[in-house]
Write a structure and sequence with these properties.
mainly alpha; about 0% strand; about 40% helix
Length: about 55
C-alpha cells in the first residue's frame, strides 16, 4: 500500500511547513490590522426585561 510509505511525503510535508514557518508566516504577521484595538471603554446600553404574559 503506497499510503503507508512515508518516504516521498515526509520530505514534502517538512519542506512545506518550513516554507510556511520561515517565509510566509512573518510576511503575514507584518501586516497591520485594519481595525486596531482602541483604549475606549465599551458603552453598555440599558435594556428592559421582557414581560412574559404567563408569569
Amino acid at each position: 500500500m503506497p499510503q503507508l510509505n512515508p518516504n516521498p511525503w515526509l520530505f514534502t510535508m517538512m519542506i512545506s511547513w518550513l516554507t510556511y514557518s520561515l517565509i510566509i508566516q512573518p510576511k503575514i504577521l507584518a501586516f497591520t490590522t485594519t481595525n486596531p484595538p482602541s483604549s475606549k471603554m465599551p458603552t453598555t446600553s440599558s435594556t428592559t426585561p421582557w414581560t412574559w404574559p404567563w408569569t
